[in-house]
Amino acid sequence: MTDFARLYGRAPELAADAPGRVNLIGEHTDYNGGFVLPLAIPQRTRVELARRGDRTVRAWSAQVSEETPDQAPETYELGTEAPGRGWLDYVQGVTSELQRAGHEIGGVDLRIDSAVPLGSGLSSSAALEVALLRALREAFALELDDVRLALLGQKAENNLVGAPVGVMDQMAASLADTRTALFLDTRNLRFERVPLPETAELAVIDSGIEHRHATGGYRERRQQCEQAAELLGVGQLRELYATDLPRIARLPEPLNRRARHVVTENGRVLAAVQALRRGDLPLLGKLLDAGHRSLAEDFEVSLPEIDQLAKFARQQDGVYGARLTGGGFGGAVVVLAQKGKARDAAEWAVAHYSDETGKDGKVLVPEEPAED
After folding, report:
1. Cα 294 to Cα 301: distance, rounded to the nearest angstrom
2. Whether residue 133 is found in the same domain as residue 53
3. Among 192, 210, 229, which residue terminates a domain?
4. How confident is the model at residue 119 (pLDDT cuts 50, 70, 90)?
């Protein structure tokens, strides 16, 4: 008997999944209409689904059950979605937005399981939203392309969950893969897939410090960007360029530094795309390092522990660069290395990071080789 059958007394009709993502470069630019460059990670979220004959949604999470083994499925009725129920808000947000957009869905039984680490800046929430939307699209024959699906996932998180995220995470979960960077213009949603050079390898290290988008500094940084744009007379900071940096410098603190980060980060994304196309990994590494400094000094979303983790990674042979990835205030570090050297460099960095900070870091990518 499957785990789904033990929960609901029947087999699932279908299953769908979606990956987490690592952002190579382009942080806090998406909600400013700018450029981003994410890739998918191997870890994925899986949703099993069976339709019901009523309007009841029952949802069960394997991750929540690790803490409460006897957890029963959470339940609500379509049309009654309301915030305040923790992880279930992501499910409620999706069904609420589908109905608001005019899509006909019915009740479902859901089993959710995820290998995407929670709170690591790798978009576990977007992976859940996109996996669930894919399952519902198939179950109810919804006319949704992959871009529209991503936009609905973003609205679910913005509205019912209350996290003011941009569209990068959901677009990456819907469109990205693990060897091709998704070069995305978040203002018009045009995208291009740019392959990683065969000589390149990425490592992703979880710092062990959890972050959240729905509260605290992330929301404040977005508000500061909007204030800076208003003072500069533009709709979004995307409309500014390096030539605008002198007048950006005249903004009050800290708005000047927030805007400077967004403008220079957009430039770094464009330069990173060109470096990828040329296979110029040393330049790409320098751009990652510069992006980290900007996140730490101008945007102030890094932490001393994250700075240390990136520093240790950079010290290893074969590493071109390393930076905080994700919204910040915790999360993960992405490392660009020569092929075959990423995991050893990341493991060395984790060992020294743990000794230095007492935090439990973990190498997530590359995944540990399976034993023979």
Report:
1. 9
2. yes
3. 192
4. confident
> Which of 157, 192, 227 is the last residue before a domain boundary?
192
pTM confidence score = 0.94
Share of the chain above pLDDT 70, in %: 96
User: Residue 370 falls within a domain, yes or no?
Assistant: no
Catalytic residues: 169
Residues 183, 206 share a domain:
no
